Please model this.
Amino acid sequence: MKYYIIAGEASGDLHGANLIKAIHTIDDDAQCRVWGGDLMEQAGGTLVKHYKALAFMGFLEVVMNLRTILKNINFCKKDIAAYQPHVVIFIDYPGFNLRIAKWAKMQGFQTHYYISPQLWAWKENRIRQIKRDIDKMYVILPFEKDFYEVKHHMPVTFVGHPLIDAIANRPKINPTNLRQQYGLSDQPIIALLPGSRRQEIKKMLKVMLSVVKAFPNYQFVIAGAPSLPDAFYRTFIKNTNVTLVNNATYDLLSLADAALVTSGTATLETALFKVPQVVCYKSSWVSYQIGKQVVKLKFISLVNLIMNREVVCELIQGDFNTKRLTKELQHILDPKIQQNIKADYDTLEQQLGGPGASQKVAKAVIETLS
Model:
C-alpha cells in the first residue's frame, strides 16, 4: 500500500522513521512518501521536503514567511493528489497538518493522526477540525484518551509514548568510553538542557550556569542543539568546569546524576533516563502574562502532568533564580530524594503504556485500510 506521512520537526522525523520501519515489518509492499528528515529517508521513505525548510517559529517569523508557507501547503496538496496514497498520516505539527487534513478529507483520502496536537493545553477549539477531518487519532499520553473520549466524545487509540522505544533502541555504549569520547572527567555530571532555540537558551542558560560555583565536586555539561554553533554557547561559559556536548542529549542523560531542564519534551526524556531534575521556565513578562491567560494547566512539565502531582520541582519565571535553583539542585542530589524520584519515574513509565507505540500505530493503520 501507499502511505503519505507528514512530519514537520526533528522529533516528528524520529517518530516517523520508527513508524516507517514498523509499517515495513507488516506490509512488505509498503511505499512511503514523506515530509520529514534524514531519519525518515534512511528508514525507507521517499523524502519530498525536509523539515528544516518548514521550521518557522513565532508569530513574526510566520508572518514574514507566509508566502513560503502557502507555497508549501499548495505543493503538498498537489503532491498528494499526484501520488494517490491509500492513507495520509500526520505527525504532530498541527499548524500545517490540520490545513492539509481538511483538504485531504474533502478529496476522499483516509486521514490518520499520530501524536495529537496538545489541545488540552491550548487551542482546544481545534477539536472541531479534528472531529471533522481526521478518521483515526492515535494519542501518546494517557490523559489524552479521557480528554478526547470523555470530554469531547471522540474515540481515539492510546498507543503509548514513542520515546520509550526511541530510548530503549539506542545502541549500548560503555559509559567510560562515552566520557572519553566527549572529553569528560570522572566527576559526577549535572546535565544542563537549556532548550533548542536561540532566544530560549539566552533566557535559560545564564541562570543555569550561575549555580556552578556552588557545586565544585560536579562537572556541568551543556546539551548543545545541533542547529546552533559552538561559538554561541561559548559566550555563556566562563567556568572551566563546564563542557559543551553537541547533538548528544541522550548520551549525556545516560551519564548524568542530575539535570536542569527547560520545560518541554526534554523533561519526559530526562525522566525516562531516570535522571532527577529541576524543571525551569522563563519568558518575557508580556509573553508570560499572555500565556497564563491562554494555557490553563496545573503544571508545566509533562512528568507532573502525567502523574497529576508534583514529582519534579518546577521553577517558573521569578522563581527561576540562582538562590532557588541552588537549593533545589542540592535537594535532588540527596541519595534518599533521588531514590524517591526514580521510584516515581518507574510509575510514570508504566503509565505511558510500555514499549511498541510505532508497531501499534502501524498495525492499526493497516487493519483500518484492510
Summary: The chain has 18 helices and 13 strands.
